[in-house]
Amino acid sequence: MKTILATFLVFISIQISAQKTINGTVFNMKNMPIAGANIYLEGTYDGSTTDENGSFSFTTSETGTQTLIISYLSYETFTMVGDVSYMKDLIVKLREDVNTLDAVVLSAGTFSAGDNSKVNVLKPLDVVTTASALGDFVGALQTLPGTTTVAEDGRLFVRGGDANETQIFIDGIRVFTPYTPTTNNAPTRGRYSPFLFDGITFSTGGYSAEFGQALSSVLLLNTIDEPDQEKTDIGIMSVGATLGNTQKWKSSSLSVNASYINLAPYNAIFPNRNDWIKPYETASGEAVFRKKTNTGLFKLYGAFDATNFELTQEDINNSDGAYFKLNNNNVYVNGSYKGALNDTWTLFGGVSYTHAKNNLNIIESTIKDTENSIHAKLKLKNRVSNRLKLYFGGEYFATDFTENYSDNTISHAKYGYNNNIAAVYAEADIFISKDLAFKSGLRGEYSEIFKDFTLAPRLSLAYKTSAKSQVSLAYGNFYQNPSSNILKFNQALKAQNTSHYIFNYQYNADRRLFRAEAYYKKYDNLVKYDTDFANFDSNYNNEGTGFAKGIDFFWRDSKSIKNFDYWLSYSLLDTKRDYNNYLSKSQPNFANTHNVSVVGKYWINDWRSQVGISYALASGRTFTNPNEPGFLNNKTKPYNSLSINWAYLISPQKILYASVNNVLGFRNINGYQYANTPDLNGNFNRRALQPAADQFFFVGFFWTISEDKKSNQLDNL
Questions:
Q1: What does the mean pLDDT of the chain come to?
Q2: Beta bridge pairs of residue 38
Q3: Is the CB of residue 203 less than 8 Å from the CB of residue 149?
Q4: Quick one: which of 644, 646, 648, 645 has its CA closest to 607?
Q5: CB 370 within 8 A of CB 360
Q6: Residue 286's Cα: distance from chain center in Å?
Q7: pLDDT of the residue at 8
Q8: Residue 164: phi, psi to the nearest 5?
Q9: CA nearest to 508, candidates 112, 207, 72
Q10: 136, 218, 358, 468 from 302: Cα distances, Å
């Protein structure tokens, strides 16, 4: 018995002597001790946690080379590989994890809407629930600061830039013809249904080196990666009908959406200022196919629409009015793939093709336009570490544009151009800490039409001033070739250029968000010509210049009042340009000095209803009065519009929806048309350019048939 006890004691003493002690202290980068940090040897049960002084100590029987892990929430994990005999009296400093939700965000000039965005200004569904938007994503974005109210146009005018300076992308690939065609003094709409998109990024300036050929703004639309269930959506509206369906399989899915719009019945009930021969009619369809692979996701997106109408509009210089007829066909196809190459590298590739055809008759002129465009893109991302991410990419744009023109004096004139651009870029995201980050990039573009190469640096910085606020700075150079109405007549030009300077402050806490942003833009190489309109016999040059400066404010609050969500935006814009046929540097006729938007949405439980309002106020825009000296010497009266909507939940999957734009019937004036010649008194007579209708009424019934028998389109209205 004594022998057994002695043997046991010897064994225990050997084990104790074989055990090693691992100890040390854990601090943060400010030399403050971290209590509660987790410490352990990888692959074992040996470990401990730090006390209030940051100290730890534990023993292990492991020998040789081991891996020591030290981790704590919101900090980067520390790893030490070495012999356990040297893991004594360690002093470890943990760095803050820059990927935490409260980390700084590079946000100058950018509004995001998406489930993956850290700072959402708009929710994805706000695009189609805003009363004044009428289901158009562009209409919803026009309630944000930085945009200008140009009611008769409908496109995005951003911070002193005209609509051609904003480019739209779907899943990262360029859309060359994003708007439906329209007639004079009638706003256009975005071609694409918001129901297939779940992420939106709207950059009003200072955007990444990934994007070029846009002087003022880029709008990024991302299609849904994976639908949650199979469903069918049916819509019957006062202006037409819609039908959508989603199918899911094991590793793939397909969503389709089709619509038909015909304004003939509406115009019969609510006549407007146009004399319609054939009211506006359009048929459109979209589809998104998704296929998951072991390492990524493939998407194929396609859209088409066919539009036609014919009318006569009042014209002060033509007693019979101005005749206008249009037939348009547009096809857009987009394929993309995003996947992981390994643990640190990811790849994105995509290509799009656009075919757009317009047949127009304007008074005595016949115009036939055809555009074929391709965008191919490849980019790589290398996640070197949590603190450094590198991006590399290249892309190619190709546009073939032709126009055939004839009238009573010109027979079959033909214009056109080929605009091919190759671009490469490199960019880095550098996170110094979770409070300080940089983005630095360089973009190079070669324009085949001009035989010219440009370099555009981009830089942005963000610093977190508190747990709920941050400031950001952004700078960048941006280039864009002139638009089709210039290039079809003259290609002996060069790219237009602007520089952006942006300062942003943002506060985000508990369903409240405030943003203030100041900016300055300097324009160079803008195109000028010496005739009333760009024409084949105009003289063109790149001597135009301009500037835009201002400040934008945005406030959103969904907490203060139960079931009520609202946002307010205000923009102050000071801008002047000398371009096109301008006689001097002046405020452009598309720019408002002041823009105000108020949007509110309220859910009423007892009524099973969502009620919304949207109010827009914009100061007057410039126009030239030939009865007074000067150029762009007068301004219109301010623009006012109050819109309301109401969605009533008949049953869990059936909704009745109604909206009225400009419910108070404000008589807005977009500008004036003057007579070509003066009257007997030497005065030029004029007529006000008013919307075709002061108000627009919409009623619809929407029915969802889904697997869970609960989903509906309330959030989509």
A1: 88
A2: 49, 71
A3: no
A4: 648
A5: no
A6: 19
A7: 45
A8: -70, -15
A9: 112
A10: 18, 21, 20, 41
136 or 62, which is more confident? 62
Q: Tell me how long the chain is.
A: 717
Report in angstroms the alpha-carbon separations of 613 from 508, 665, 699.
Answer: 24, 15, 16
Give the torsion sign (CA, 99, 102, 103, 108): positive
Task: From 20, 8, 395, select the one nearest 172 (Cα to Cα).
Answer: 395
Query: 372-397 as b/e, with b when 16 or more CB fall inside 10 Å?
Result: bbbbbbebebeeeebbebbbebebeb
Place of tokens 């493939």: 298
Owner of token pair 């992308």 = 169
CB 563 within 8 A of CB 605: yes
How many whole angstroms separate alpha carbon 444 and alpha carbon 429?
19
Q: Which amino acid is at 498?
A: T
Contact call for residues 112 and 127 (beta carbons, < 8 A): no
Q: Which of 332, 333, 336 is nearest to 298 (CA)?
A: 336
What's the pTM value of the predicted model, to 2 decimals?
0.84
Strand runs (DSSP E) across 171-248, as ranges? 173-175, 197-203, 217-223, 231-237, 240-248
Given a cut of 70, whether residue 374 has pLDDT beyond it is yes
- Which residues, at least 6 apart from 391, have a Cβ–Cβ distance to it below 8 Å? 210, 379, 380, 381, 382, 425, 426, 427, 428, 429, 441
Please tell me the predicted confidence (pLDDT) of residue 376: 97
Supply 524's token pair: 């160079």
Q: Are 459 and 440 in contact (CB under 8 A)?
A: yes
Backbone dihedral angles phi then psi of residue 13, each to the nearest 5 degrees:
-65, -35
Tokens representing 65?
């080379």
| CA–CA separation, 337 and 321 (whole Å) | 51
pLDDT higher at 122 or 96: 96
For 527-567, how does the pLDDT look when each residue is reduced to its tens digit (9 = 90+)? 999 998 899 899 999 999 999 999 999 998 988 998 898 99
Distance CA 293, CA 291 (A): 7
| Cβ-based burial of 235 (10 A; exposed 0-12, middle 13-18, buried ≥19) | buried
